[in-house]
Amino acid sequence: MAFRFIFLLSLSSSALYSQGFKLPRSTLAKRDLSSFTENLIFTSGNTDGFFVEIGVGGNRVPVEVDITSADLYTTGQLQGIDSWQNSGTPSDVLVVLRGYSVQQAFASNPADHPGLSAAFPESNAHGVLGLGPTSDSLIVNDLKDAFSPLDNIFVSNSSAPFATILFSGPDDAETSNGPEFAGLFSIGAPVSLEAIFGSDADLSGLPNMTQIVNQPSIPLTHGTFTVSEIAVGGKSVLLSSSVSGAGAGTAVGLLSSRSPYTVVPIDIANAIYGSIQGSLYSATSGLYTIPCHTEITLTIVIGEITIPIDPSSVVIPLSGTSGSQCVGSYQADTERHTTSPSYDILFGTTFMENVYILLGYGTASGQSLSDPIMRLLPLTNLAEAHSYFAQYHGGNIQQSTASSAQSTSFTTVTVTHTPTTTVLIGAPSSTPYSTSFASTSPSASSERISGNLDVQDQVSDDKPNDNNGPTGSVVDQLKHCLPAIIVGAIVVGVFLIGGITYCLVSQNRRSGAKESAYKAIHYAESGDHSRSLYGHDEDPSKYSDPYTDKMP
Q1: What is the tens place of the pLDDT at every residue in 286-316?
Q2: What is d(CA 34, CA 42) in angstroms, rounded to the nearest whole number?
């Protein structure tokens, strides 16, 4: 119960917020959320995914939501429950999820997970909750009449066999490592913003979430779906699929709730970011570093639904830089080498911020669930998102256009509006958890949960052109060349003064005039007073990074 108390305290001043979907902080601060704890989605600290709180055998447990899994795992100490190892039999325990109580098979390991313990120090146990279908479950595969957690609820309540996720992301203004309100979760009915926010929901212009049930159904095959189009700046990107049986000109997608990045084929990443002035691609991580003020207009069509993506979801702050450096959230796939891939694009949480998601079944009768589907309700208004983005960056924005050419890999970038700094982005740790906690080492698990990026010391410039030359607008180029302009002006001035003096002296001598009252100009010897541009010879930590500092 201690965890719930601390959690509710932290929520009292948080906000449901994103550029496409936002609510004023003052509105939420007035609401008593204690009646909606079963509906709340939250994030914590540096963990990449998002969490809900459930009951497991009378214990309150924060669990990370995993759309690609279909099982319940816990770590840490659960009072009154025996642990389960790989060689044993899964426990059967009463699980309470969103007000529904079911007997659920799950795996438990008393060895705590260091990453989750750091994120939730007030809780004795933590876990991962899979929202997938029973057919994808590893735990209940050999058990008779067993179901995955959501299916277990659906067979008992077959009139509305679906769950919904409204993920807004954490409040960018919050700096606490504690839980932050990041959205709402529901089972059997759409999220009701009116129930939580009352008339303020209408006043704030929030969308009507009940419309999700009227959206076209998108068939799912082991969680995957068809991506019909991706457009950058209104220009379609050429799509192709490595998945057997996929339609021509399409790609196969899969949702992932445990990473902010959307992992795409490198051609798509290049089309989104490759033409951006000042972009930097790392072949090691598959990520582009991007000037934070870059606005990218991106739309994605899944099934029949066109989903506008907020610019702030396409270029995101780099973890650990306080928003001074940014990366593209669409990460080139540099690791998968399977000969039989099941998907082409893995959509992360920065995509999920832009759409309300329903996952469920088209047909449910008794113990039978069939026709898995997904419904999507877009949340982002591009015109409003553009206005907010421009206002946030003080009108200093860089707009991009689509490019089908692959960007040259290099590691040094000169950005037009700030001093030059050299960075290399390391690979993120985005590998999902092992499906068995017993076989996962604590050190490996700790690395997987963070997903942080490292800034490395050694870099090299592989780009054939001079990356350190002036780029950008005329004003930016003049700033870059300012020292040379000043030196040139001084030299010209000195020669001009000398020439005038020579002429005057010569004239006086020819006319027999008296000695001039002006003394001959004395040119004192001087050392080189030139200064490296932007303090290049000084401690680089005194100067800005090569991207705008003002970013959530």
Answers
A1: 999 999 889 999 999 999 999 999 999 999 9
A2: 14
